[in-house]
Amino acid sequence: MGILNVTPDSFSDGGHFFSVDAAVQHALNMAEEGATIIDIGGESTRPGAAPVSAQEEIDRVLPVIEALRGNLTVTMSIDTRKPEVMRGALAAGVRFINDVTALGTPEALQIAVLARVPVCLMHMAGEPHGMQTNPVYQDVVGEVKAFLAQRIAACVAAGIARDLLIIDPGFGFGKTLQHNLTLLRRLEEFSALGVPLLIGLSRKSMIGTLLGGAAPAQRVVAGAALTMTALSKGATLIRTHDVRATCDVIKMHEALTSC
Ligand code: 9MG
After folding, report:
1. Which residues constitute the domain of residue 189?
2. Residue of minimum CA distance from atom 7 in ligand 1
3. Using a 6 Å cutoff on CB, does residue 37 contact ligand 1?
4. pLDDT, tens digit, for every residue of 50-69?
């Protein structure tokens, strides 16, 4: 899953304006490099990020989705927690929902029921603006697993087919470095939930911290190493900025597991 951030700080036209053409080109490049899903998001969920209105988010993502429709041979995903944005994106051709709040509102749940598309349910403790302030768990794996099990049950009860559900422990979303490391070390325990596992570690600050303050662009190799670990512990979908490197890691993992 290649990440396409459609926010004002990405895909500048060289000045102060966002370039739809540059975003489209980036999506096409990621598909060419091997991504089978392009995850399009118009609101940053980084720690401390300010929320944007639904209309603002729609205005950011829809022109890109419309420009990609018909030109992209792989699946478009919408990265949003807002029902209005989900609705607009699905109507424009998106066929995958990535919701960092795990369809946390009845409206989002209902949209997913009707859409019949795959949905990624992610765990997040708190809201992006304050989630890294002081996250506390007694048992991070047990609590994240229990939350995801509850969200799977709620989705199935609402009428979403179980085989459309994907789970994600949400690395960096209301978790300390130690919580993230524990989740990765014990990732195989999520297989007990019986649905595919997606992980997003790409260029995250936990990697920067472990590398002594490396900038995002310097985190690619370490991210690839963590991806290999995640694959060996049962992850089957990887959300990444670095599609070519990630596909190479997946090929190595496939070679090792099919010989
Ligand atoms: C939107 N977004 C940012 N990080 C993410 C992650 O780790 N997983 C998923 N599913 N979405 C994410």
Report:
1. 2-257
2. 200
3. no
4. 889 999 999 999 999 999 99
pLDDT category of residue 132 using cuts at 50, 70 and 90? confident
Catalytic residue among 186, 239, 244, 251: 239
CB-based burial, 51-88: b 16+ in 10 Å, e otherwise? ebebeebbebbbbbbeebeeebebbbbbbbbbbbbbbb
In terms of phi and psi (left: phi > 0; alpha: psi -120 to 50; beta: otherwise), the region of 112 is alpha
pLDDT over 90 percentage in the chain: 87
| CATH number of the domain residue 201 falls in | 3.20.20.20
* Number of compact structural domains in the chain: 1
CA distance 116 to 110: 10
pLDDT higher than threshold 70 for residue 205 = yes
